[in-house]
Structures
1.
Amino acid sequence: MDSQMDLALLTYVKGELDKDEMRQFMMIYPTRRKNASSGVLLALFLGGLGAHHFWLGKTGLGILYLLCGTIGWLLIFPPILIGLACLIDAIAMKNYVKTNNTSEGRALVQELITLR
């Protein structure tokens, strides 16, 4: 089992899937999970374009960051806020990624259950 997998997700997976489904889960899940280091780098270097939010699947926030980070330069105030928000996002990225990975894992379990 992956050492970074949340204990609650692991318990959920073991309780819902049989051996073959568990094997499928263990093959597919690593391709869907995100890495916090990648998220931090995206937030720090491309955060003004909303890249880290698009990467996490939060399209609405990604568009907001993109607009404020590009067109917002005309107003000066929004880019400063976006810069601070990106720094805060980089600090909180571990929690964002953990939440995303847990929901991805649960969604995968549901997909495998529907294939029964």
2.
Amino acid sequence: MALPPSVPLPAALQGLLWIARPIQYMRWCERHYGRAFRVTIPPFTAVLFSDRQAIRTIFAARPEDMHAGLFNSVLRPIIGSASVFLLDGREHIRERKLLLPAFHGNRMRLYGETMAEVTRRSVATWPHGVAFSLYPHALEITLQIILRTVFGAEGAQLHALRAAVKRALGPWSSRLALIPLIAMAARPERQQRAPWKWLRRHVPRMDALLYGQIAQLHGWTAVILLSVTFVSLMIVAIREVRKRNARRNRPTPPPLPQPQGVSQ
């Protein structure tokens, strides 16, 4: 099968257009090269589709045929190497199975109550009669929903995690941040060297707080059984898989991430 046509622009120029005007650039490519075309965003070459049937085929494909984790490696400096977004094949399937219980219908309804509460509080603070940017408010709503429903953070823990996540993600808020992200994806060792590591200077603090929250839930067995937070449900799922695999003499899932000084 022949590959779709390749955009005949210099790779560096394609990368700059992708960063500066991504939507306009993709629409220009579609007008000139059709609903399937190849672009080069150094060091990656990607085939992009806008045909609905092609997109359905891609999403219905077998995991071993589609490796999204390889392309998502650009996110590694922010989300780490073990994120489900960066996994492919059997590893991806295994991790997704651990996530599925948290998406059960009844639990999603409970998450919805928190989502509605957070959104109502935010909307109540919006100005009236003047134009304003919705983007920062949407980010704040999303962050609070994740910290409360995924990690079960409340009160002082919520405020500390919220501040740490904002500091860690701050350097990546500009479109220009895609340039160092792509550079570190191409050569991961750059994360530990200047000037690249400066962009990640707040990540260890964020990780420590998030892992601490996970470890706290991990130790509260009684609370976990009653909790509907995303992480607590994952912990229960991992425990059940370990017990089942131990009975069947099969390999168990990897241990949960732990900050130093915390044991499982």
